[in-house]
From TrEMBL:
Reaction catalysed by this enzyme: N(6)-dimethylallyladenine + A + H2O = 3-methyl-2-butenal + adenine + AH2
Protein name, UniProt field: cytokinin dehydrogenase
GO molecular function, one term: cytokinin dehydrogenase activity
PANTHER family for the chain: CYTOKININ DEHYDROGENASE 7, GULONOLACTONE OXIDASE
Cofactor(s), names only, from the UniProt record: FAD
Keywords: FAD, Flavoprotein, Oxidoreductase, Signal
Pfam families, per database record: Cytokin-bind, FAD_binding_4
Length: 542
């Protein structure tokens, strides 16, 4: 892990130093007395106009019209869109969220968006001239209540998964069953989409590990729901893209947390072998606890090439040992096996060898290390810290996430991975299989038709001060990938979908569109919630 993090940190430094400091940095690094006075005047004028709209809104939390708050509410991790809200609300709890929505109901155009930790990539959590609710600021976020007898945790919708992990593991030796790779995401945010990582083939997405929710609907009602109580709302909200309600509390199933993990990467030159082994592992009774897959470039690029694969500084990737006919990209499976401190090391090693013995990876290209369970789940934190320090965490991230049916993944590899993306995306490319049967079809998530389908994630990074042309090129390439899938008739769905028209949304939801509209009609008939998704508009009559 140290080697991997070291390479990523070095890469971040290279990206940060590869472009000159722009005038924008100088311009925003300080304000003259004149500009400070102008900002103060603008804030006061904004407050007067917003006061007229929100004068009767009585909440225990706070309403912020300031430049910083508005700036926060008008940007996200993607950095591609910016829509300024009227104000940012920091609620004290669910009652405040309900008050905000009920207030919006009384006005003809006002909309409300719940913002978690701001990791949307296409403006999904924004509300143009509406109200953004900063869920991360909720006072209730500190309430993480573990029930050891029934093995669950009650947690606020604005709490970060990383905080849930640390509390549950350190205090109780327990952990949720399913995760995302990056844990500085809010509970309500991931449950409104799905929440996918290498454990999903066993336990399903994070939405499958939830047994109860507290939701504030678009009607302003605070409702507790579950599989057996208000079940239509429960399944509507899970994967519902924020369209039916704001999650203010979730009950998440727990299991005993292991002490340690064996973290392994094995390399493939042939996509057929890579997918065969990945599918074998996710369908076997005896298998690893975590299975993911990556695509990397057949070059010495420190971000996307050979150096990105080893896990420790004492490991190296020797390209001279690769087959002579290796193509422009290669693949590796990332595998994890849980164990405890009291387990016999020889027994652990025998199990690892037994599981790896079924696989067709390249000889000489196995990398492994041992980590604590918590450090493995928090492995991205070090990358984030370095990226924030260099400035590239705040630059645009034109990411693309998709689900692609097994029947089309070979053609996708041939047309997209080995051609369109053969030079990489200046960041990780993930691709690994999932099982449809682990997802509850009553939720609002839409999936490809095959039992086995693949997650494909293009996690692009840019330089510290990227040119506009660079960003446009990345976005255009994403669009080329999507259009290629459409042109070739691939069975695919966007994960974290983003469309601009009703026609595109209807195509996305397919035969589930009418169900989605019916749910909107029932739980948010005035289309107040999540306007940034651009599925429904405030004045559209449902």
């Amino acid at each position: 892990m140290g080697h991997q993090i070291f390479l990523l940190v070095c890469t971040i430094a290279l990206l940060a130093s590869s472009s000159l400091v722009s005038a924008e940095v100088v311009k925003h690094s300080f304000h003259s007395p004149n500009s400070a006075r102008k900002i103060l005047v603008a804030e006061n004028e904004t407050k007067k106009s917003v006061d007229g709209i929100l004068k009767d809104l009585d909440i225990k939390g706070s309403i912020d019209y300031g430049v910083r708050a508005i700036s926060l509410g008008s940007r996200d991790f993607g950095g591609l869109y910016s829509d300024k809200p009227l104000a940012v609300i920091s609620p004290a709890g669910a009652d405040d969220v309900g008050q905000v929505i009920r207030h919006a109901l009384q006005l003809p155009t006002l909309t409300v968006a719940a913002r978690g930790n701001g990791h949307s990539v296409n403006g999904q959590a924004m509300a143009h001239l509406g109200l953004v609710i900063d869920m991360k600021s909720m006072a209730d976020n500190k309430k993480i209540n573990v029930n050891v007898n029934y093995m669950y945790v009650d947690v606020c919708g604005g709490a970060l998964w990383g905080d849930v992990l640390k509390h549950c593991v350190s205090e109780y030796g327990l952990a949720p069953t399913s995760w995302t790779d990056y844990l500085d995401l809010t509970v309500g945010g991931t449950l409104s989409n799905a929440g996918v990582s290498g454990q999903a083939f066993r336990f399903g997405p994070q939405t499958s590990s939830v047994t109860e929710l507290e939701v504030v609907t678009g009607n302003g009602e605070i409702i507790v729901c579950s599989n057996s109580q208000n079940s239509e709302l429960f399944f509507s909200v899970l994967g519902g893209l924020g369209q039916f309600g704001i999650i203010t509390r979730a009950r998440v199933l727990l299991q005993p947390a292991p002490d340690m993990v064996r973290w392994i990467r094995v390399v493939y030159s042939e996509f057929e072998d890579f997918t065969h082994d990945a599918e074998l592992l996710i369908t076997s009774q005896e298998t690893f606890n975590y299975v993911e897959g990556f695509v990397f470039v057949n070059s010495d690029d420190p971000v996307t090439g050979w150096p990105s694969v080893p896990l420790n500084s004492n490991q190296s990737f020797d390209p001279t040992l690769l087959p002579k006919k290796t193509g422009p990209v290669l693949y590796y499976l990332e595998l994890v096996l849980h164990y405890n401190n009291h387990d016999d090391p020889s027994t652990l090693n025998m199990m690892v060898e037994k599981l790896l013995g079924k696989l067709k990876y390249l000889e000489h290209f196995k990398f492994e290390t041992n980590l604590t369970y918590m450090n493995f789940l928090l492995r991205v934190d070090h990358v984030e810290e370095a990226a924030r320090g260099s400035g590239i965490w705040a630059t645009p991230h034109p990411w693309l996430n998709m689900f692609i049916s097994k029947k089309d993944i070979d053609a996708f590899n041939r047309i997209v991975l080995q051609n369109i993306l053969k030079s990489g995306v200046n960041g990780p490319i993930l691709t690994y299989p999932l099982l449809r049967s682990k997802w509850d079809n009553r939720s609002s998530v839409v999936l490809p038709q095959d039992e086995i389908f693949y997650l494909v994630a293009l996690l692009r990074f840019t330089h510290t001060h990227p040119k506009e042309s660079e960003i446009k090129q990345m976005v255009a390439q994403n669009q080329e990938v999507v259009q290629t899938c459409i042109k070739n008739g691939f069975d695919f769905k966007l994960y974290f979908p983003h469309y601009e028209s009703t026609v595109e949304w209807k195509r996305h939801f397919g035969d589930q569109w009418e169900r989605f509209v019916d749910r909107k009609r029932q739980f948010d008939p005035k289309a107040i919630l999540a306007p940034g998704q651009k599925i429904f508009t405030r004045n559209h009559i449902l």
